[in-house]
């Protein structure tokens, strides 16, 4: 018996276990993150959702040859009970200690615990590494992703929408000015880093004043950036750049303000080549995966929680502050229109939460400069 809210994961687990056997993995850890530690993810990156049927935004799955378990927090316990089938155990915690204890019971000594190093933050990787140290089990990074192999051609395709320039009227600083500011910080830093590596999607979008729609409700696109003293490399699907965006990035070529475009998949290999020289790479560990972090030799690493770009982005210039206020005023108009509509419609019994959400979305779309909501509308209660 399966409730209609649950997904039958038997075939999916069988496919994953087949790939695990081929790679000598006794356990495989599946997080709910993407390769950029994004708060929200695209359907293509919803590996945990596909494997388990659980669609909550936070969780970790572990699969062995004969067991499977999902860890999630209290926001999602009821949802997980409804969405998981009988192949899965629900663990009502998110503590890595709980996950590793379960793994130690399920995997005998000498076993390999595997994961994709490009889906785990440096801190999370280290937590697993410390918890398993001295246990006789090996933490084994595996590329490519085993869930992707099991998912096969059913996996949603990569994003293909246009990447476009934000009009200058909305930014207050050109991307060239932002690059100059970050380079000044590099020069002033006591360790004089030669490069800044950007992994957070909003970092690259902010730095170059570019926007996309690769993740629902988020105006970002898949990219990495390596900014050095003398060069700028943007790792992105070049074919998706609007003509004006490409022209903006390459107007000053050749030169220190010329943006070299390379394929998104080239970031790791390029970083490894770059770090063979006498260099220091500055990065923010909160948004950098262990896979990229591990490509930089420790002695060539300058590590902060957040990159200088993330910190600069957090401080809004006068133009950005003005735009924020104006956006809030426009949104307030839509919300007031919605409340007035509710006052008229609710007594008639014509509104439920879904139709309310559709209506407020339409009111917001009617406002100038609307690019859609920042999350799925929560329109009403009771």
UniProtKB/TrEMBL annotation:
Q: Which Pfam families match?
A: Creatinase_N, Creatinase_N_2
Highest taxon of the source? Eukaryota
Q: Which SUPFAM superfamilies match?
A: Creatinase/prolidase N-terminal domain (SSF53092)
Say yes or no: keyword Protease present. Answer: yes
What GO MF annotations does this protein's record show? aminopeptidase activity; metal ion binding
Q: Where is the Creatinase N-terminal domain?
A: 12-144
**Carries keyword Hydrolase?**
yes
Q: Alphabetically list the UniProt keywords.
A: Aminopeptidase, Hydrolase, Metal-binding, Protease
The UniProt entry's sequence similarity note says: Belongs to the peptidase M24B family.
Q: Write down what this protein is called.
A: XPP2 aminopeptidase
- What organism does the record attribute this protein to? Lophotis ruficrista
What phylogenetic lineage does the species belong to? Eukaryota, Metazoa, Chordata, Craniata, Vertebrata
């Amino acid at each position: 018996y399966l409730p209609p809210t649950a997904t039958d994961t038997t075939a999916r687990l069988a496919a994953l276990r087949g790939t695990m056997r081929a790679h000598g993995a006794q356990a495989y850890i599946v997080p709910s993150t993407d390769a950029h530690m994004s708060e929200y993810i695209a359907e293509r990156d919803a590996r945990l959702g596909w494997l388990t049927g659980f669609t909550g935004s936070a969780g970790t799955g572990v699969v062995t040859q004969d067991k499977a378990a999902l860890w999630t927090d209290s926001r999602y316990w009821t949802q997980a009970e409804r969405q998981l089938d009988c192949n899965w155990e629900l663990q009502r915690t998110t503590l890595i200690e709980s996950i590793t204890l379960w793994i130690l019971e399920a995997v005998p000594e000498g076993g390999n615990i595997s994961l994709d190093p490009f889906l785990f933050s440096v801190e999370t990787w280290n937590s697993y590494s410390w918890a398993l140290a001295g246990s006789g089990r090996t933490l084994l990074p595996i590329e490519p992703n085993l869930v992707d192999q099991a998912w096969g051609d059913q996996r949603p395709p990569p994003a293909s929408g246009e990447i476009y320039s934000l009009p200058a009227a909305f930014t207050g600083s050109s991307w060239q000015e932002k690059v100059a500011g970050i380079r000044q910080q590099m020069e002033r830093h006591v360790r004089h880093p030669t490069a800044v590596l950007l992994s957070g999607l909003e970092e690259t979008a902010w730095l170059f004043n570019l926007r996309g729609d690769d993740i629902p409700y988020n105006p970002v696109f898949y990219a990495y950036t390596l900014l050095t003293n003398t060069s700028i490399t943007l790792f992105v699907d070049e074919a998706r750049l609007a003509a004006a965006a490409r022209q903006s990035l390459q107007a000053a070529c050749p030169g220190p303000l010329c943006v070299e475009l390379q394929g998104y998949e080239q970031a790791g290999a390029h970083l490894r080549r770059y770090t063979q020289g006498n260099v220091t790479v500055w990065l923010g560990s909160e948004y950098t995966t262990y896979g990229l972090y591990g490509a930089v030799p420790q002695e060539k690493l300058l590590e902060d929680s957040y990159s200088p770009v993330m910190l600069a982005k957090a401080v809004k210039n006068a133009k950005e502050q003005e735009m924020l206020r104006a956006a809030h005023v426009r949104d307030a108009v839509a919300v007031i229109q919605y409340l007035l509509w509710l006052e008229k419609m609710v007594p008639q019994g014509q509104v439920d939460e879904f139709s309310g959400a559709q209506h407020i979305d339409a009111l917001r779309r009617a406002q100038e400069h609307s690019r859609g909501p920042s999350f799925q509308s929560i329109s009403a209660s009771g």
